[in-house]
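Structure ticket #2291
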Amino acid sequence: MSMKNVLILCTGNSARSILAECLFNQLPLCSGKFRAYSAGSFPNGTVNPLAIELLQKNGFDTTGLRSKSWDEFSGADAPTMDFIFTVCDQAAGEQCPYWPGQPMTAHWGIPDPAAVTGSEIEKRQAFRDAFQVLKRRIELFAHLPFEKLDKLSLQHQIKDIGKK
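Resolution: structure written out below.
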């Protein structure tokens, strides 16, 4: 299988999509298979510090992670995406730009850990929960037998992963 480009979208591009970008790019199971990017429809301009903290505590390199607009990936010079995943409900319902190459898309929505109010323990738990769900979905995706699935079957598989 050749390297596939993956774009993970969310509204603010500060937590869930950042976690997924980092997981796709650094999990050993994904190495050599995927190059991931993340973006937001209305990026807030900063990566949530709890996302950075969680990634670093789990041994991930956070160098270069940044909150950015999906406009960076809709221009003529942008990489052609093979897969696009939305990870928040707002981005799932928004009008997306045209993506060259007709990438496969699926909604992998999860609750926003950055929206959790309460104690620091509760906030950190929300980030850990989001991280674990994303990690499980990305691992399921990476284990798919891409070479054995036709386009329709693959589309069904990636949508089903979002329900797990």
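Closing remark: DSSP finds five helices and four strands in the chain.
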